[in-house]
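[Structure tokenization] protein backbone as discrete codes
[Encoding] learned vocabulary of local backbone shapes
[Protein] chain in single-letter code, fold in tokens
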Amino acid sequence: MKWVIKNPAPLDSRQEKWGDFHFGRSLTKYLERLGEEVITDYDGEWENDHQEDVVLVLRGKYPYKVKKEVINIMWNISHPADVSMEEYSSYDLVLVASNSFSEKLKKDLSIPVEPLLQCTDTEEFKPSNLDHFIRKDFVFVGNTRSVKRPGVLWSVDLGLPLKVWGRGWKEYIPKSHIVADYIENQQLGELYAQSKVIINDHWDDMKEFGFIN
């Protein structure tokens, strides 16, 4: 079968800095190993027609208008508060990155709904020489999104030796905590394995709807 993944990552220089890009990249790798043909359309290419059999929409930031002549699958991995019941209903199958919210949707929709949680590429998040790592540092990887992400601010306020990779932090925290604007996704596994504590926070709607980050 020919699959087209509609990925919300942009086409410009920001692309490889979007988590959705790497999520889709790994997903493509494993689908191809199953013998499937996979094409990816990024934001700005979603109207392309590849004569596909299946369209898989990674529903994060942007909605997609389905074409009824193919099988349409939504995998709602983030921003659930932005998705209407009408949008869900336009698909043939809805996959939701939340066990609790998928149960709610099953009651509200007439189409199949199944939980499918966010996942990790274990080939990339399997550091080498793990026995030789000395766990140290408090780390956070992520952009500000132009908001005050509480986990980072609390860590700084508590005086933790936090190291931050991400864009926009000079406005919110001392420069001494900022390591770089970006770290390659393929390097994250080893960084996390060597860290004593990994700081994380979450979108409010994803917390409310049970989307595990």
Observations:
- The longest strand covers residues 2-7.
- The two ends are 31 Å apart (CA to CA).
- The chain has a mean pLDDT of 93.
